[in-house]
């Protein structure tokens, strides 16, 4: 775990190219900006090449996909391989909608994805493990989350983050866990989307994608935990706002003091 990656990120202010969903696009932009990265969103395939050249990393989010956005994702992913830029895939609701799973599998077959970040329902679907996914949420299942994440990483030859009460990070062999967090993340739409783009931001400033993925999970989950400790009641909207502020204020020592890692 490299907490000094956070200061590296803030110093270098990496540009993160996001093919975002329509629901949480502004929260993702503000969250990245607050943390110390520089977000850019795009919905135009014609500008794929210059944007990838400009960016330190790319995040592809399947949340509100359209046929033209999927074509843009293929183009951006191919340029990312050409210019050696890391790619994060957020497979929103692939466990609930067969069409989305097909799109995700086609992207994974065609592109060099560095990290897949999804909840248990999404990662189980990609690993072909039986699971009762529910829309954008993780749903329910009784499989072993480490085994599911590992199977997904081995199948697609990439790093997998299976997020939830415990975040499991694996490259198919190594496994790390971040136990920080708060149930308020689940009450606020867009938590996963922002985490995926923050993973891209850390990939942009690191030569070790496993360490970048682990650090992103800690910074995000622990920031949320620190915010929740200050809230007097269950306030999902206030949590979302305060989380963005906390991403800009949180320090390395603060994170080290509360980190729960395995
Ligand atoms: N019940 C929970 N307790 C603590 N942290 C959680 C919980 N559920 C989700 N998180 C945190 O929320 C963030 C987003 O993950 P998740 O909710 O799994 O994504 P998504 O929004 O895509 O379903 C992660 O940092 C994860 O650690
Ligand atoms: C509600 C909704 N519908 C399509 S995408 C989306 C947001 C998903 O956000 P997250 O998975 O980060 O909670
Ligand atoms: Mg999600």
TrEMBL record:
It is an enzyme of class 2 (transferase). GO terms for molecular function: hydroxyethylthiazole kinase activity. Keywords: ATP-binding, Kinase, Magnesium, Metal-binding, Nucleotide-binding, Thiamine biosynthesis, Transferase. The keyword Methyltransferase does not apply. Its cofactor is Mg(2+). Pathway: Cofactor biosynthesis; thiamine diphosphate biosynthesis; 4-methyl-5-(2-phosphoethyl)-thiazole from 5-(2-hydroxyethyl)-4-methylthiazole: step 1/1. Substrate binds at residues 41, 190. Its EC number is 2.7.1.50. This is Hydroxyethylthiazole kinase. The gene is thiM.
């Amino acid at each position: 775990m490299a907490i000094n990656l956070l200061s590296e990120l803030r110093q270098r202010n990496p540009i993160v190219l996001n093919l975002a969903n329509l629901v949480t696009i502004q929260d993702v932009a503000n969250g990245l900006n607050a943390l110390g990265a520089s977000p850019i969103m795009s919905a135009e395939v014609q500008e794929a090449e210059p944007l990838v050249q400009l960016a330190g990393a790319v995040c592809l989010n399947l949340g509100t996909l359209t046929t033209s956005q999927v074509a843009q994702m293929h183009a951006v992913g191919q340029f990312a391989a050409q210019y050696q830029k890391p790619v994060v895939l957020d497979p929103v609701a692939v466990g609930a909608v067969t069409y989305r799973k097909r799109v995700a599998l086609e992207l994974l077959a065609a592109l060099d994805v560095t990290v897949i970040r999804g909840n248990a329902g999404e990662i189980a679907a990609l690993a072909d493990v039986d699971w009762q996914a529910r829309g954008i949420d993780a749903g329910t299942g009784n499989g072993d989350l480490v085994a599911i994440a590992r199977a997904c990483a081995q199948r697609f030859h990439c790093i997998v983050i299976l997020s939830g009460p415990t975040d499991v990070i694996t490259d198919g062999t190594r496994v790390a866990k971040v136990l920080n967090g708060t149930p308020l993340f689940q009450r606020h739409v867009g938590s996963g989307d922002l985490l995926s783009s923050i993973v891209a931001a850390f990939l942009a400033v690191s030569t070790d994608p496993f360490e970048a993925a682990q650090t992103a999970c800690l910074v995000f989950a622990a920031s949320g935990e620190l915010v929740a400790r200050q809230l007097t009641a269950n306030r999902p909207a206030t949590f979302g706002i305060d989380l963005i502020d906390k991403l800009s204020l949180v320090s390395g020592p603060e994170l080290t003091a509360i980190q729960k890692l395995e």
